[in-house]
Structures
1.
Amino acid sequence: MQAEYLEITDLTVSFDGFVAVDTVNLSVLAGDLRFLIGPNGAGKTTLIDAVSGLVAATGSATFDGNELIGRKEHRIARLGVGRTFQTATVFEELTVLQNLDIAAGAKRSSLSLLRRRRSVPAAVAETLETVGLTDLADAPAGILAHGQKQWLEIGMLLVQDARLLMLDEPVAGMSGEEKDETGRLLQRIAAENRTVVVVEHDMDFMRSFAASVTVLHAGKVLSEGSVEKVQADPRVQEVYLGPGHHTEAEVAAVLGEGA
Ligand code: ADP
Ligand code: MG
């Protein structure tokens, strides 16, 4: 079987004539952990909004050969595409387990949802382990720490069997330890041969965990490749640090060591 991949071709999103995403071409293979970075307003969120069916776009975005552009959000989700938002959208009054159950139920018939099950389904139990929330399965999601809510949201995508996961700034507001946990979680998910796209602001996090990077600027792809390659790219340095020559120390302070 051919590997699954996300292929974006000439993707464009305009808001009243303002072009937020401008003829973007981008491919991400299954197993990759692709970071999408770029300054505020670069079009990162709009790009994943377009791929997940939240905003209208022109051009093409296919996953596993299926065209996503022009389809409704729920149809795109059924094609194995899932995304998270910067602010976690879990059901606060329900337990962690119930949240996962509901997400898993999106794939089950309403009849099987009505039947009471005596045990936790294997896929849900496995996901609890994967996202490190087994001990909190019966806790209301509302009491979870910020980081744990993000992990629950990622778990909700996993039980839906999302094959393409797009995460919008998953580590914003997390402690250093939570960021590392999240990075390792994302690596495990990518290692399961899923396709993972992470929109991020946090350069340290990006350097530690990105397998590959695409830099967006003013709606266009500015640079792409390994962490080292985009850090060393003068166009990326110019966008992040301004025009002109920058010392190694200046670059390192913004884009990290080794740039
Ligand atoms: P990023 O996530 O990279 O910070 P966004 O994708 O949120 O950037 O925004 C890209 C640009 O599109 C920004 O200039 C933003 O103001 C604009 N934009 C985003 N959403 C809308 C909208 N619904 N209507 C009008 N302009 C928007
Ligand atoms: Mg954004």
Note: The chain has a mean pLDDT of 91.
2.
Amino acid sequence: MLAIIGGSGMTQLSCLKISHRRVIRTPYGEPSGPFTFGTVNGHDIVFLARHGHGHTIPPHRINYRANIWALRSLSPEHIVAVAAVGGIREDLTPGTLIIPGQVIDYTYGRDFTYFDSSEDPVTHIDFTDPYSSVTRMQLFRAARLADEAVMDSGVYAAVQGPRLETAAEINRLERDGCDMVGMTGMPEAALARELGLNYATLAVVANYAAGRGTNVAAIPLKEIYVVLEKAMVRVRNIIEHLAKCYDDKTNT
Ligand code: HPA
């Protein structure tokens, strides 16, 4: 089974032929909502809306631990996390799709680990490459088959939100080597790694980051959703092809 976490602009997966919905309880509390099960072109998919079905959970209040724990209980082969970002690098214009290769975590105050007990031995994870190379390869392959342009690599800056950044903060992120900025990439990626899950992000550039491109004075918030709506058609096309190629057992 393939798991999709939908972000802003994707509270449901319209290409999914739904079979049922299920509430999954976890020791970490409630996930963002019920999990939607179904098929895309005959292939099993489970979908979770990260911000809840009605897009009501802000990035800093998402129960990332519950979401990833619940997904693990379903043993998905891959988790694809769709996430809206602001483009910092000049070529990351609104509407661009990109599969980041690295992440820098600027978030705070979130429950960011499962290894939090003073009774268990201290546990570290390797996070040199934060995303699964297999899942990323599958995504690139699906994008090629779907004839959708997707950019490779790039550093994702995970920020706290829910406000957008100042122009100076974006300059600082750029100096740090960040190419794009979003609010949900962490601790989601690290939690998936802690549980040994194949996880990668498909980022959708929703806007130029603060102070960049045409957003020198301000970010036009209404336009973000117009861009996302259009881009999600292409994301769905990739997911449809991903379902196909992941089911091709020679390529899993
Ligand atoms: N900043 C942070 N998160 C975002 C942005 C942004 O500009 N656009 C979409 N998510």
Note: The chain has five helices and eleven strands.
